[in-house]
């Protein structure tokens, strides 16, 4: 039988974007943001200086050096037994991130083939059975079943099935088999 | 009413990949391939030295300097009046091409927003109403209606609706309105 498909986001889901952004933003701007201090804020509220935020995100190696999320590697490998995995990242806004993202995946997820990597803008045209993402802007319009991965900016959202970490994600998805 | 969506390929459809590849391959390998001499051959038959082909495709600026296909700019702009256009390129096999493709689109198609650019591997999960592409490996498995854009390697394929140039593509698509 054909395996069901899962689209998995990178920033905030496979990669710990939040820690890295806080670090780089604090260093560049002299702020003292912490994971706790930005809980429940939108990205716009947490990182108020949009120009500076974009400067940080456009810096060489920002995306290449993101820490990998806890349990992500083993979990994706586990899911790959029963699902076809696509990595789907909204990345075309930051051209410098594109090759870095492919290289980052090559380092941590070498078992994901290039055929299964999608660097896009809008995820509205991505047709997979499930989509794991941290952003409502993607989950609200996705074709498959949305699964919200907890992040500081989505903790007050209640309209999607939520998973708080990779162990929960694997459990929820394996239950559908 | 929501506009219907079209996924448009880059290499061989928006960009004249064939001319550039023949030029660079001949220069690097001392061959004398021409558009006429490779008509009806597969890519593997036309460009026999796979290692060299990959070396050419991985060279800096190969994708950034592709000529734009005749009538492509005006045609996409025309289609954009009645359709939502997504540019969908199978590019993750060549990481160096990724930022170059976004820059190339910025030069010739500045009216395409980053949200509508998809750099992917397999196009099986791209869900648009139409897909314009030159490769059976994409058209045979696409979700929407496939439209084959003529290229040297597909002239003997007869199982898809064919357009030979951008003027024909616009005529075929506008007829669906």
TrEMBL record, chains A, B:
Cross-referenced Gene3D superfamilies? Deoxyribonucleotidase, domain 2, HAD superfamily/HAD-like
Signal peptide extent: none
Residue numbers annotated as active site: 9 (nucleophile), 11 (proton donor)
Task: Please name the InterPro entries in this protein's record.
Answer: 5'(3')-deoxyribonucleotidase, HAD-like_sf, HAD_sf
Superkingdom of this entry's organism?
Bacteria
Q: Which SUPFAM superfamilies match?
A: HAD-like
Question: Which GO biological-process labels does this protein carry?
Answer: pyrimidine deoxyribonucleotide catabolic process
In alphabetical order, the GO MF annotations are: 5'-nucleotidase activity
For this protein, the record's Pfam families field holds:
NT5C (PF06941)
- What does the similarity note say? Belongs to the 5'(3')-deoxyribonucleotidase family.
Name by which UniProt lists this protein: 5'(3')-deoxyribonucleotidase
Q: What organism is recorded for this protein?
A: Flavobacterium crocinum
